[in-house]
Amino acid sequence: MPQVQIPPRTGWNFKNTYAQLPEFLYTKLNPTPVKSPALIILNEKLAEDFGLDPATLKNLENVNVFAGNEIPPGAEPLAQAYAGHQFGHFTMLGDGRAVLLGEQITPQGELVDIQLKGSGKTPYSRRGDGRAALGPMLREYIISEGMFALGIPTTRSLAVVSTGQPIIRETVLPGAILTRTASSHIRVGTFQYAAHFGTEEDLKILADYTIQRHYPQGEYDNPYLYLLQEVIKKQASLIAQWMLVGFVHGVMNTDNMTISGETIDYGPCAFIDTYNLETVFSSIDRQGRYAYGNQPYMAAWNLARFAETLLPLLSNDKDKAIKIAEFEVNKFFDFYHQHWLTGMRKKLGLFNEEPNDESLIEDLLNLMEKHQQDYTNTFLALTFNKTEDSPFYQNTEFLKWQKQWEQRLQRQGKSKEDSHHLMRKSNPAVIPRNHRVEEALQKAVEEDDYSLLHKLLKVLAQPYAHLPEQKEYSTPPEPTSCPYRTFCGT
Ligand code: AMP
Ligand code: MG
What we know:
This protein is α+β, with helices and mostly antiparallel strands.
């Protein structure tokens, strides 16, 4: 591939702060070039937010950047090393199919990681081919952007390019590279790696860097205790938001939990239709470790692993450090519960607090579970008073619940309009439903027709707008004997 100049007006403005960290935390290397890249999708709005010029990004020079064939000016690519507990087992991992080009400085002066996912082998690839398939990269694009529109902290998707190279999975698939962006890719697993393979000084350097990058505002006596407290709060808020929209991450290994509190790694994730805490989509999660209702417990487990890595920095006295860590991790459930309850009150149009709110909420959820009701659509039916649409709402149990809810609404002294308004803002008209995502991906990958994908992205971009064109996207899938399954390592 001949060297071409990237036009300066593109706006690439790299800093490489991660590359300044101790060398054992990464391997500097370039992505592996691909045969014939083509731009599939570009997130123009996101590009603009990052100070990048969308028109120039579509030029061949920048498509080559997204494909890993060109290194943009100022970037110092590297693959990050990390470890992680995968389904409870500690393993050495790292970017096995990704490289961090560097951190783009946005017009607001923030740093954003620009990472290519599917960019070829690295020293951390183990037996993998370092590559990714078009379908899963588009799926990550759709769902991460859907999560962003739902207001949930997440990594973002800037672009997908096809590589022109087939990749071998169970079948031969078209290869692709996703340009993923994140406030950073520092994971619980990054700290596990540093604690395991580095010195205490290395760990301190990583922790200081992380505080500087993500939590620079705080006042504290011990910065590392402060870091632990902030990460616990951020994760409690994040997991509550997942639960409130019915998101099942599917592979909450410690390497897939960020220190920034952004959702990362959209491999086997999916949204629930009918409400059921036991919902598992991932084909490899046979024990249901990462089931919908287990997510808060798994987050707490991961945070305990994070706290363990910080022990030497929390106190010189090991027993004291353990006590501090346990005390902080135990606060997770309170934080989580508060976020969840606050969110649920909003979903039911409640502005104030009453002691029995939780049982009112639980009663509704239990009814949904018992009668296999669609989670998102039940809240929509309550929001828009469309309870005539299904026999569930004529059920005496539901009618009894509804009466209690209406009395509760009346007691808060707010108008019906106020409650309706709050519910509209808190109950999405659409979520990325699995059958709709699959349909769009199938058309795109198998028929090279991107019309459905673009329509889906448009509909998902404003979940709280409650637009007429969103109606058809709110229909649950037809009942089937074969439950929806997702796959890892795609
Ligand atoms: P994930 O399940 O996506 O969190 O990935 C777990 C680990 O496997 C990470 O270290 C990935 O980089 C690595 N990995 C996943 N797919 C591949 C692949 N095709 N080639 C190399 N490494 C991979
Ligand atoms: Mg991962």
